[in-house]
User: Fold this.
Amino acid sequence: MTSGSLIAADLVIAVLAAAGWLGGGATAAARRRPLALGLATFALVATLARAITIVALARAGWWFAAEKILIAAPLSLAAVVVAGPRLLRAPRDIRSVAVPLLFAGYAVSSALLVTVLHGYPASAGAGLLAVAGVAAATAVTWRVLGPRPSGTVSRTVLAVGVAALVTGTGLAVAPNPASGVPHDHDYPDTRTVGEPTRRVTLTAGTTTVNVSGRAVAAWAFNGQVPGPELTATVGDVLEVTLRNRDIERGVTLHWHGYDVPNSQDGVPGITQEAVLPGQEFVYRFTADQVGTYWYHTHSVSDVGVRMGLYGVLVVRPAPATGVDVTVPVHTLAGLPLPEPTTEPIEAGTPVRLRLINTDSTTHRYALAGTSFRVAAIDGYDLHGPTPLVDTAVLIPAGGRYDLVFTAPAAPVALFVDGRAVYSTGPVSTATGEWPALDPLTYGASSPVPFSRFDKRFDLVLDRGLDLHGLLPRYAHTVNGAADPDIPPQVVRLGDVVKFTIVNRSLVVHPWHLHGHHVLVLSRDGRPAIGSPLWLDSFDVRPGEVWEVAFRADNPGVWANHCHNLPHADAGMMTHLMYE
Ligand code: C2O
Ligand code: CU
Assistant:
């Protein structure tokens, strides 16, 4: 069983246990004896069964089980100790066990709420609030259902409840020690930029574009979705003038995966102000990285990218030879882009397909009709990629894969989620059952270039209640906090930094660090044994633990976030910051 399914199973069992105790208590109060006994017995078994899932999760990593061991287990134990024996003695008057059964229900439910609303790390505040909730609910139930508790008992319950409530609330709403990210830092550009050799102007504006015969409202660069494809040869100096015609919420250009100097990174509020209607901003940087990249707005990026403010950036080592095409996949107003193209290619021609995922969720790409190699991922060439046949690749949000092959005589087709997007002729292969490539085991390995880590950070991804904003929200969290309350990862120039990224949630989080590529060390404790993988975007699936490392060689304040952009917008955004 994967950790992801363990997390889900544990949640389901906890819900069943809570429902069983509460249902047992309610039916006992209604004197429905057989039903009450049945439900309570079921709840008892479910509560005990959680011991198994909690232990299994703890073995997968403390992050997955911390609050379950520290808060849920004691509360469940209390539930079993209070309700269990009374249940076994099952008195004639079943109504007399209603309060103990309901108490068990409150205890198990509040433990569940701690997991769902708070998660990792377990905090004293959350534990105390859970206890307060149980005490309050039990006290009320007792009053309603009688027999009236003795004065000492009710005073004790009241005192426990009030004390837990006051302390818990105090701890929970105490201002977060997390400093915001200071914006007044200046990181002088140490990399000099020569005279521009390529100049482009991108004008952002609202428009209507035609997709598969339908007129679709979009936000576009130069009136087209995707925006103009920017190409350069390594060593070029790019100068891109961004103008905003009428995007009220502002625009910027972020060079996704391109490790530009910080001042050119295009993150509003961090590296520049958003460019408002009528304004412009000039980006200038040297094309010193070869490969497949893309650009997109980082201002309300959740909406802006979805509406069409993105385009391709390709830097080649030399002018392209053979067939070299980019396939930037996107979903615009529910319609898939690009529209299918078919162009015959002469047999023997070298072909490079640059696959780009500009959406917020993973896409599955399958190349039929030829064997191929994955030559590069996220712009970085792989070592010793071997030929693949009938194998799909899963590209995370923001990620890029370059597939290369020599055109065969028969037609070839690229399918994205089962839809033919690019082909050289008719191909009718079913690709749905193909296995997916695991890049961690693909290609030839070489030793990890880091022997020590100067800084280590754990990033635990989850959901949780965020009370620090104007309105409470159910945020996507990192280490129990949501942007802007997540402490930045502070490093020094030259540090070798290790991130351990843990997904405790039930959804995929495509992780993306700006300004650096990270080397994958391991996933779920198993070392990466294929070609060194230097990534800027990778899917951390539910229950997965990724270890990645990089050298801090690009000073600045860098966004470090989930590239499922609605998640980033809902709190899952942190920053890497140089001292
Ligand atoms: Cu492609 Cu911060 O993003
Ligand atoms: Cu996410």
The mean pLDDT is 93. Residues 476 and 572 are 5 Å apart (CA to CA).
